[in-house]
Each structure stands twice: as C-alpha cells, then as structure tokens.
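Researcher: Before we compare anything, I want clean individual predictions. No alignment, no superposition, just each chain on its own. First chain goes here; please echo the sequence and then give the structure tokens.
Model: Echoing the first chain and its structure:
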Amino acid sequence: MKKRQRLKWIFTTGLMVFLLSGPVWAQGEEHIDTGATAWMLTSTALVLLMVPGLAMFYGGLVRTKNVLGTMMHSFAAMGVMSVLWVLVGYSMSFGSNVLGGWFGWNWDYVLLKGIDTTIMEDGVPEYVFSMFQGKFAIITPALIAGAFAERVKFKGYIMFIAIWGVLVYNPLCHWVWAEDGFLFNLGASGAIDFAGGTVVHISAGISGLVAALYLGARRGYPKAEMSPNNLVMTMVGGGLLWVGWFGFNAGSSLTSGLSTAQALTATQVAAAAGALAWMVIEGLHQGKATALGFVSGILAGLVAVTPAAGVVQPGGAMVLGVLAAAICYYFIILKDKLGYDDSLDAFGVHGIGGIVGALLLTFFIRKSWMDEAAALAENGWGVWQQLGVQVAAVLIAIVYAGLLTYIILMVVNKTVGLRASERSEMAGLDSSYHGERGYGMLNPN
C-alpha cells in the first residue's frame, strides 16, 4: 500500500514538474508582449485615422471646386507612401548607416522579407513597428499639400511626394530615430524628437513654404474670395486629428506603460491649452472666437507637444500649447503681410509649431530625464547644452528639407509639370484632374 502511494506521489510530482516547466522552457524563446503589441496595433490604426482626418480638415478649407482634389492629396499619399515604405523606406530609415550615414540600408528590410518572424526587444513583432512607422511616412508629405492646395497638378504632386519621401523623409527619419543616426547620438542624450516634431512637422512645414514660394500664389490671391467651403467638415477633421494624435505621440513610446501614460497626458493637455489660447487671442484681437481658430489652436498645441510628449510634465505641455498658439497665430498674420500664399497654413502651424516645440521643450524636461542625461556626460549636462543640440537638429532639418525640396520641385516641374494651368485652376482641381464634383450638381465655384 505504501509502495503504491509512493509511486502515485512520484508520478504526480513528475507531472507537475513537467507541466510547470513549459513556461520555463518558453522563457528562452522570443517572447511577445501582448499588452504592448495590442497598444501598438491600436496606435498604428489611430495614426492612419489621422490621414482621412487631415483630408477632411484640408478639404473643408478650400473652395467647393477643389474639395475632392485636395482630399485626394491625403488619400493618394496612403497608397504611394505605403508601397514605397515597404519597398525601400523602412530599410533606408532603420537600416545600418551607408554613404557616411546619409541613410540606412538593410536588404532584409526590402519588401520586409527578413522580418516575417522577428520579435523586437520590447516584445512587439517587427511587422507592427514597421507599419506604425510607415504611417508617419504617409502623413508627412500629406501635410505639405496644404501649402500649395488649389494650384498643383495631380500627377506632379504624386511624383513630388514619391521623390520627397525617398530623399527627404527617409534620411531625416534615419538621422533622428535610428540607433546609429548622427542626430540620435548627438551630445549626451541625442536630439529629442519623441514623436516627430523635427522629422514630420518641421520638414513638412519648411518644404511646404518652399513649395508655396516656388509655385507662386493662387490666381486671384489675395483679392479674390477664397472662403472655406465646409467648416463643419474641417472641425470634424480636426477632432479626428486630435483623437489620432494619441496614437501618434503615446504610441511612440513603443510600450504600454508609464511613458505611454505620460505622453498621452501631455498630448491632451497641450491640445486643450492651444485651443483655449487661440480662442482668447483671437477674441482679443478680432472680437470673435471662430471655429476655425479653435481647431487651429488644437493643431498648434498638438504639433508643439509632439517632439516633447515623452519628456515634459503636464505643466510644461500646457505652456508649450499656449506658446505655440500665440506664435503660430502671429506667423499666420505675418503671412498676409508678406504676401506669400501658404494656402492652408502648413508652414504657419506645422513648421512654426514644430520649431517651437523642438526648441522650447528644453526648458520643461523632467528633472529625472535631465539627471540621467547628465550622468551620461563626462563633464555634466544641462539645459543649455541640450538646447544647443535641439538648435542644431532644427537647423539641419530646415536646411536639408528646404534645399532638397527646391531641387525636387525643379525636377518635377521640368518633367511632368507641377503648376496647374490657368484653365485647370479656374475650373477647379476636381473636374480638371478627377472628372468629379464633391457636391453633386452644386455650383463648383
């Protein structure tokens, strides 16, 4: 009897050891963090949502005859940039340095053929990371389109964003976000760009300004009436951008933890502060608080906090939102005085807002983050040293994006053409390039 009980005990113990050893063996394998992966999947979808949100935001601001053509600029980027990202974009952005670090390259990243089963150190499949980053590559050239809305050939635009994505966006992304990028490693802590203030907004804003100046103003600007066709759509688009921005910023933590919560909170606070500040400034300056002003303030706050979301506390995010609203408001007024036609204020909001955030975040960095940076530096590290790094990164982005954009514009203009003909522009982009009308049989003017 005792022998039977002993055998039963040995069998039970052995079975328990066998069952419990399964997880132990699994620890040696690549482990997927399902929580982080779920959040990154959600963030990827949220960032993609921003593209139709941008299409609605821009589409409502142009004249009726250009609403579809303007929205197509955003939607076309979803197709063009997605294909290019899979072909070469991910490799150029996150591969190892080539040509002195101008961009990266990794043959395994071409067509994503080498990451089919790869799990990253954070426990997220590399497919998810690559698709998340690919959404940034989509929305950046789409932002540029706001600067030259209502006057560009569709085929010229397609060629422009394709070349721009390869020669401007991918190298900038590599410099700032790849582990061997020179801006990533500049100074003790690298240039801070948590979610794309430099890579996305400054590059898009400066490129938009160069394009607006190169193409010239819309025919009739500024004397002709060029009122928005649908501010309701613009407000809905602005709301979708705000929602999508949580994926844009909080998703850039690449985790689902404390840093995610910090970035999400900073995003909400900056957007709200920017909207309220713009409303107050506009009320004092013009006597009325407009719907367009409110959503413009939302965007200014969101843009400014984008590079800072992971390193500033809510108070700092609030200040950045207020400052961005005030400075962007001033630059939009200055645009009218200078007379250049940045149709939908791509430079005034994204370029200026990105510069404000990238530079001024330095004065609101968490003490713990700055202490960590100081510990890495041989001779100490402080606010002014980090400000120098931020200034260098901003200037490099401005010069590089501006110069390459000008060259690309010339190439496109000399080949397929860029500026719409007078007849096409007066008829409207919708009928000229798409054979459609956004509002049925309504008067296209």
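Researcher: Okay. Second chain, same rules.
Model: Second chain and its structure:
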Amino acid sequence: MSMQLTDIRAQIPEEVYAALEKEGIAELRPSQEKAIKKGVLSGKSLLVCTPTASGKTLIAELAAMQAIMKGEGKALYIAPLKALASEKFKEFKRKYGSLARIALSIGDIDAADPHLAEYDLILTTSEKLDSLLRHHAPWIAYVKVMVVDEIHLLNDPKRGPTLEVIITLLRELVPTIQIIGLSATIGNPKALAAWLQAELVEDSWRPVELRQGIYYNRSIEFK
C-alpha cells in the first residue's frame, strides 16, 4: 500500500500539512515515499532522478518548508531559466505565501539585492545566485536548503561551470546545507550523488504510461 499524507502528519509542521491537504494531496507518489524513507525530512541531501511529473517538486517543497517552519534557516530554489523560476514563484506563493516570505530574484546580475535577507524562500537562477555570492550577500550563511532543479545541466558546456561553482561555494560556506537535486535525465546518477554526498532516489513511475510507436500514413503502430 502506498504511503499516505496522513502517515507523515506527525513529521511535518501542521501548517504545511494543512497546505498540502488543501491541494488535494492524499497519497504520496513512489519517489516521494522513497525520499521520505531516505531522510528528506531530517535534513539528508538527496539526488532525485525520476520521470517528468512524477512528483519531484513536492520533495523539494517538503525539505524547504520543513527548514523554514522549524526556524532552521532559509531555502534557495535554483531554476535553470527565468521563466521557470517565475512559474515556481507563483506556485509557491499561492501554496505557502501565508506561511513564509517568498521572493523572486532573477533581475540585474550586478545588484546585491540586500532586501533578500528578509525572505525565507528565494527563487533564483544559477547566474543570479553566482552574482549574489560574488557580492558576498551575508544572508547566504543562513541558507539551510538548496534545491537545484534540472541538476543534469552540470554537464551543459555553458551553464554547467556556473552551477558547479555555486554548489561548491555553498557547500563550503554552509557545510551543513541540505542539497536537493532534481532531474528527469541523469546519465551517471550514482557518480553525481557521490559528489553531492547525497542519497540517490530513483524511480520509473510516471502518471501517464510512456509508449513507443511509429507514425505512418496517419496511423500509429505501437510496439
């Protein structure tokens, strides 16, 4: 039997439980159950490699909101694109806006944005975070959780180096930081998990069955 939201009620802040219940979440997906069993709620770093729409974002939300609501520190959500960061900002603001101060920082990469010190959950891009680190933003020391969406972009020749640098710097600045890496496609998940010093969560479950077929002459023949 799948793990139910009620099964973890005692492990998460009541306000977070209520927010998830309001979203209609009753049953946890396989990757979410695995993440909980591997310690996402107790500060363990995770590399989550599961298909698109399999529930990776909720794992990140649980880690971030757990740290914020317990007063352990701030949370960073690093998205690869400004558009994705904006989309997540709107989603998190709707779900958790009454529980945490949520900010979006994707603008001028030459600005230090000192106002971010007042926020609990900050959504940004790797390029912007790199700039904030170069400006020696003092609030970085209070980051407890760092979520890296599309972490497979470490292999991207353009964005990979920046992403690798900010992960390395944050681990040095905050040795106890909890890293949650999310991806649907990682060629070497075990090696990456080892580098991150993270538990690996892998699962093949997807909400819609993936089938292969050939389209020819207005018809599809599935394998």
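Researcher: What stands out in the second chain?
Model: The chain has one domain: 30-203. Additionally, The chain has a mean pLDDT of 92.
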